[in-house]
Design brief:
Radius of gyration of chain A: 30 Å
Oligomer: homodimer
Strand content of chain A: 15-25%
Number of helices of chain A: 16
Largest sheet of chain A: 8 strands, mixed
Number of domains of chain A: 4
Structural class of chain A: alpha+beta
CATH topology of the largest domain in chain A: BirA Bifunctional Protein, domain 2
Distance between the termini of chain A: 56 Å
Strand order of the largest sheet of chain A: 6-9-10-22-21-20-17-11
Number of strands of chain A: 23
Chain lengths: 608, 608
Amino acid sequence: MYRSHTCGELRIENANQQVTLAGWVQTVRKFGAITFIDLRDRYGITQLLFGEELNNELDQSPLGREFVLQVKGMVNERSNKNANIATGDIEIKVESFKVLNKSAVPPFTIQDDTDGGDDLRMKYRYLDLRRNAVKKNLELRYAVNRSARNYLHENNFMDIETPFLIKSTPEGARDFVVPSRMNAGQFYALPQSPQTFKQLLMVSGYDRYYQIVKCFRDEDLRADRQPEFTQIDCEMCFVEQEDILNMFEGLIKQIFKDVKNIDYKETVERMSWEEAMWQYGNDKPDIRFGMKICNLKFPSHTFSSKENISSLINGADFKVFDEAETVVAIAVPGCSEYSRKQTDELTEWVKRPQIGMKGLVFIKVNTDGTFKSSVDKFYSEEKLKAIASATNASAGDLILILAGAEERTRKAISELRLEMGKRLGLRKENEFKLLWVLDFPLFEYAEEDNRWVARHHPFTSPKPSDIQVMINNNPVIENAADYLKHPYANIKANAYDMVLNGNEIGGGSIRIYQRELQEKMFAALGMDAAEQHHKFGFLLGAFEYGAPPHGGIAFGFDRLCSILGGSESIRDFIAFPKNNSGRDVMLDAPSTIDEKQFEELQIKLNLK
Amino acid sequence: MYRSHTCGELRIENANQQVTLAGWVQTVRKFGAITFIDLRDRYGITQLLFGEELNNELDQSPLGREFVLQVKGMVNERSNKNANIATGDIEIKVESFKVLNKSAVPPFTIQDDTDGGDDLRMKYRYLDLRRNAVKKNLELRYAVNRSARNYLHENNFMDIETPFLIKSTPEGARDFVVPSRMNAGQFYALPQSPQTFKQLLMVSGYDRYYQIVKCFRDEDLRADRQPEFTQIDCEMCFVEQEDILNMFEGLIKQIFKDVKNIDYKETVERMSWEEAMWQYGNDKPDIRFGMKICNLKFPSHTFSSKENISSLINGADFKVFDEAETVVAIAVPGCSEYSRKQTDELTEWVKRPQIGMKGLVFIKVNTDGTFKSSVDKFYSEEKLKAIASATNASAGDLILILAGAEERTRKAISELRLEMGKRLGLRKENEFKLLWVLDFPLFEYAEEDNRWVARHHPFTSPKPSDIQVMINNNPVIENAADYLKHPYANIKANAYDMVLNGNEIGGGSIRIYQRELQEKMFAALGMDAAEQHHKFGFLLGAFEYGAPPHGGIAFGFDRLCSILGGSESIRDFIAFPKNNSGRDVMLDAPSTIDEKQFEELQIKLNLK
């Protein structure tokens, strides 16, 4: 061993001990004839004192930042203690030293506030990983990993590895494929998730399965997606939705406790997908703050059970509202005194292409009881008061109203709500609020093919009460225009998403385990019997031999870590991430391969 | 939840409780008006008693093997207890039942001694996994996984995930490659191991890394290889060989304790590669038994430090020995009374193509002090006695002697030793003997290219005393015939293999961390500067910025599990293995892919 102690270990109790340390030179400070060096390793920083007697030697082999150094010396109490670091009471009076390896001057500083840009740090990722900020993220990631494994182990889950070289069954996302040399002309696929395997393990009776496992999706990468990502993947036998919700609330609460020392004692809120859309405009609401949507107007086929209050705004000759499919509002607390400049800025904000609204209507609920709006021309003070009352606005609030087509407008108000929450400091970094979103629609309508697509995935079961609806009806949509009248349009899924602070951190479902129902599902997705057999024959076969009721969930491990670490970016929590073009710029991968490899695989390029 | 208890849980203390169980029908036995059913789940088997009053209902929905059943009833003490199962004191008097799913008649019996052949069981792997024998293997695998993680965690190792989509740098084994759609014409490779990444993590200062991780090699599959396999992969900073040996003996001993309840207290034996070859004829000797090789004759360039005793056999006009490069013997204990038939059978055994010897010479060391050999014509009793003495044979032993070319003959005597050990019951299933094999040669000679290849891998450091030999000499072999005289031929690696019962379960090395030395290594392997930069520029770059001394090891997780489980086949310890053609016959993968996939990837087939 090159050391007797780590750089984070020595305390005042070790004074007068002979020690050997090894690590990296963080800083070199010369004070006259003596030199101080901060020596760094994974565990901390220890101050080294090089006395005058070592000056000759230091001159012969000068030390620079990031040199790897081994020193022998005596632990001394420091006269000038540093309370900021754990070893701050001591320093090492160096007696001899050895440069284990030199370092060129790093292309950026190895500090929390590094001067390195994103591209440079990605290229030299091995140096970026030395920074404390990045190390803390990976340590948190390991702590989450450890906590999850311990909880699942205590609850009788077994880690069972599923294969990575599987069969390509593209449905939804694109597969990465792997040409097989031994089976020329054929390809493996990398798993988008171990979904069918974990279901087979339930058929095999393994009862409780888990895996922390890499998954792969060949999609065009949005800002915060990676082609390979990690899931905490779980499945259970003989359970209903309630059992899964309880088990996995428990998992996340345990992680809060172990990793953040947070006792999450509250009951985890639950909300139907419909309520989430109605109140928050999206299916993963951030419930750390209120500012719920007031639905002033909405198309009749959506939210059919909800009260229609469009009379509040209709008939005032305000064409924007009269002609809009949807009019939605939020009451932003305490912002009634926004200046013209501020409301103009908000108007510009909603008109950005990412939001795509044509304009913004506002009503100021003044603290003196009066109202001031951008639509005073059309609405009397009385009417404004009625609208304000519908939005639950208080004196001092600023009501923001968007109008337009249902889908886009609801999305826009949701974004605006989140933006205002952020601006007002309502999305507190150290507050964690969990939420289950339930009762999703089982299907979405795919206009281009006039068929159904599975909203979650094709293995999700409908609610028990909808199983017969699904089995007894033909999934084919005879009349595209009337697809909403098809009985499948209203089928609810036995599915659930776990949402943390406005992010979906996990999702799952109770699965189909009846062959007949699974075949109906595949048929709804436009697969004929031959295609079903080719792609999923093994699963349909397994359902013939005593498949038990089962269900599960998968958590996005990268995302979960980034939220717990208070970061927007999952990339900061992955040791070797890829950029937005799917490249590893450090390795320079992907790259060309040898002619011999093409020959052996019996493929060639066919570049457009 | 579909059950109140599992099928392995109920005891006599639960008598008179109302319970709900769910599981699979293992057996149905009718006795007159009553029916007994064994209900099975992951946790055990519970006997169900269906009384006469349920006969009508049973007639309406008859139960078969592997049906999924839910029953409600009362726990009763059994009159006829079964001491073989944990629940054997009780049975459930069924009050009501529900068939949760039917099962077709399985294609083979779900029992330890199943009637299903290998191919059938692979196709229906989800049914094979139900068998207790397979379940026990996967449970053992999980126990090893858990034990390893706990030990490594307690020793400050961090699980850090490394990427799966990396760069193809074929050196040794073939890479599986993955065409990149976003970077058309370029390919990722799947990692053969996380070797370079774990080294970069050491450069980044993570100090102690581990991962239980899938690796991929596209090789023609021998009987017990898989294209995807799992490693326990570890790396440490600031260590020397001794530190690694201690740390990882500790790991394996902990696994013995946790998984097999074996206190492995003995010191783990250590042996140089040269001694292993000298005494056992291979580099992973099974030291559960002796029967060491007696080297009667060997070529002068091998084992140059060993005493030459060829005068014992030379000059007796026995051409087979006189002309042989190598003559080696073992003394098989207690077999001097082998019949002619038995020695003939052994002769046939060594003449099989897998062994490839031309014949077998034997000397019987009779218990009455006489000798009888197949070469009595050439060797006097006195000479036979001298040979016997050299082999350390005792009265009653049978000495077996092989002669031929060095490499083949040594391999053959090693195989013969193992075979005789097996026949004599010396390779005991419940005995575990660990061994470190050390001091491997760093290089092997590649005749076809007249260059060196790395015996372990190109990142292994030479012994400290050999570093200057490597740096100061040109790796080019000027004279192919004299390659043994090149200074590189004698360089020893700072590498180590852990051997368990004659199987290599892990191997590793202290790594090169100096750029100059790494470049020299790459040059020795025939890589010019451009190729070095293209393939490993990131690693050479990392060595510029303060790379610490480091080393590590990787254990073959599948193999380790199979040995602990007492099986020859790793396949039995993998949930979803592939066959010898690399196929998953259950999935029917690999398979063809869609035209759209080819188009998007911009590749096409080029079948010969």
